[in-house]
Amino acid sequence: MTEPDTWVVDGNYSVIRDITWSKADTVVWFDFPYVTVMARTIRRTVRRVLSREELWNGNREPFSNLWSFKPEKSIIAWTASRHRVYRERYRAAEIDPQWSDLHFVRLRSQAEADAFLGGVDAALTKED
């Protein structure tokens, strides 16, 4: 998983965080505003429910994602209930001495994300 010289792990699974972060040098944190995250989650979920888009291994967004208020039953409810939790978790990790060797890149807007990714793209192009 993290054996080559360069690698990227996507996600925020706390179960494996110690494994991946102990081998990482940088954590990129997309810390967008709650309204932005919710609008994108709702828009994406509605599109996937209506189109019956396959997510993986035949899984599709259930219609219950559109009306359930239970986080374990709806990605919309889960996102609404977890945004603050993840924000606090990453803020704490930034100042935790355990992760002092990591460089945290906190992107707070789409413009910051675009600029950061543009820089990554430019750096990769230079290497070629």
Describe, in plain words, how this protein is organized in 3D.
It is built from four helices and four strands. The chain has one domain. The chain is mostly helical and 128 residues long. The longest helix is centred in the middle third of the chain and has 21 residues, at 75-95. 49% of the residues lie in helices and 12% in strands. Helix 2 runs antiparallel to helix 3 (75-95).
The secondary-structure element order is HEHEEHEH
Main sheet record:
2 strands, parallel
- The count of DSSP E runs of length 2 or more, i.e. the number of strands, is 4
| Tally of discrete structural domains | 1
Uncertain stretches? none
Mean pLDDT across all amino acids: 86
Mind telling me the C-alpha Rg? 17 Å
For the largest sheet, list the strands in their spatial order.
1-4
Please state roughly what percent of the residues sit in beta strands, choosing from under 5%, 5-15%, 15-25%, 25-35%, 35-45% or over 45%: 5-15%
Class of secondary structure makeup: mainly alpha
Ends distance: 24 Å
In helices, the fraction of residues equals 40-55%
What is the approximate shape? globular
Separate helix tally: 4
